[in-house]
Amino acid sequence: MIDWPVVVGGLMVAFLIIYSLTGGADFGGGVWDLLARGPRAEDQRTLIKNEIGPIWEANHVWLIVLIVILFADFPKVFSLMANALHIPLTLMLFGVVFRGSAFVFHAYDRQQRKRRWSFIFASASAVTPIMLGICVGGMSSGKIQIDPLGRLESGFWSGWVGLFPFLTGLFTLALFAYLAAVYLACQAKEALQEDFRKRALISAVIVGILAFACLISASTGAPRIYAALTTSPWSLPLNVAAGLCAAGSLWLLWRRKYGPARIITAGQVSLVILGWAFAMYPYLIYPAYTVQQAAAPPPLPALTFWVLACGSVVLVPSFLYLYKIFAWKSEEASQHSL
């Protein structure tokens, strides 16, 4: 018999990975827009906007699907998150809105105001991943408590205020910035390619430092996550695979092999998310709800799966075609700007 809640939960993890590899890289591009420096700063910003401009709205489809699945199939978790993580979730949504609005206004407003919109776009791009990571850290911390009736008992602050959620937020930001730097190095030409190669190498080191800091802080801030990542049967193979991806990405960037580096880096990010998902299982919010405890009545998860399966027949090829078209157009725009 198929355990449909677990299947749908697995799909949520898959959509989170896809969103991180696409929309997360867009947020990382905004970080590099904020940190653009040197004589080629404006060229760097132009490349970033050429790369994310055509597809940044479409990439949010994966986040929307994730939220809809959570609302429909795990309503108890949706409700608890909306209360316990209300503040970081609200700030995250503000960041998404301000980022998108600023990006559009930057394209159409007067020239003298464009730098202001660029700053808002870049700042929102940095705040949003931090809030996302804080929410993930809060869900994992074990500090979100409910009473026997399922009502929030721990308040609006205790679930996400702490060292571990904060470090997880910084780690998420660094991971997205690293991903974006590798993508941009792959797409850039000549001097700009070297600029983003250096940024990718630096951010890779920062990602490693923050990953270690998160693991250490998890020993007290999220004991379940720490125990799972250090003692579970799957932890050693997964950690070794993630480490090999990290080392391989660094080596490929050092050798200026950008295409393979992009693939390996995407694999590294995917393994990080999978490690968190495995460490959390069977909980969606620890220790409040497991997958089974939070699942909607039996017909809904199965129906959700088949709706997604049918919809993906149209959605996935459409996205692949979209990326192919705009990858060609963005490359042409980058060459023209250079």
Question: Could you give a quick summary of the protein structure above?
Answer:
The chain has helices at residues 4-34, 41-52, 56-59, 61-73, 75-84, 86-108, 114-141, 163-187, 190-221, 223-231, 235-254, 258-280, 291-294, 299-337, and strands at 283-285, 289-290.
Number of helices: 14
Instruction: Please count the beta strands (DSSP E, at least 2 residues each).
Output: 2
Task: Indicate the overall shape.
Answer: globular
Proportion of residues in extended strands: under 5%
Mean pLDDT: 89
Description:
By secondary structure, the protein is an all-alpha fold. It has a single domain, classed as Formate dehydrogenase/DMSO reductase fold (Up-down Bundle). The chain has 14 helices and two strands, in the order ααααααααααααββαα. The chain has a two-stranded antiparallel ribbon with strand order 1-2.
Short key terms for the protein model shown above:
single chain, 338 residues, mainly alpha, Formate dehydrogenase/DMSO reductase fold, two-stranded antiparallel ribbon, 14 helices, 2 strands
